[in-house]
Amino acid sequence: MKSAGGNRKSRRKADQIQEYGNRGFTVLLLGMSSLPGKGVWVSQLKKELSARGVEMPGTKNLSLSDVASRDSTKKSLGGFLR
């Protein structure tokens, strides 16, 4: 069952992704492996972006060890950061 709050959250995030994309920014969606419910929210976001004709941004799931230090975070995001 979808919640109205989840749909609002997806619309707000889609607004931001669309706006940043329109301004020429590259958007990266970061997730934490240890957080519950991320799959449901991401699927709602994909639907919202698709309905707008906006491409889903690149995604990266991080674990707690990926963000334990600045060096491990930089290593985990190395393919996305310039």
**Can you give the helix content as a percent range?**
40-55%
Q: The biggest beta sheet, please?
A: 2 strands, parallel
Rg calculated over all Cα atoms: 14 Å
**Helix and strand run:** HEHEH
Stretches with pLDDT under 50, minimum 5 residues: none
> Biggest sheet, strands in spatial order?
1-2
The number of E-state strands comes to 2
Shape: flat
Number of helices: 3
List the domain count as a whole number: 1
Q: Give the N-to-C terminal Cα separation.
A: 40 Å
Strand content bin: 5-15%
Kindly name the structural category: alpha+beta
The whole-number mean of residue pLDDT values reads 83
Describe this structure in words.
- The mean pLDDT is 83.
- Helix 1 (4-22) crosses helix 2.
- This protein has helices spanning 4-22, 38-52, 70-76; strands at 28-32, 58-62.
- It is built from three helices and two strands.
- It has one domain.
- The radius of gyration is 14 Å and the shape is flat.
- The protein is 50% helix and 12% strand.
- By secondary structure, the chain is of the alpha+beta class.
- Strand 1, helix 2 (38-52) and strand 2 form a beta-alpha-beta unit.
- The protein has a two-stranded parallel ribbon.
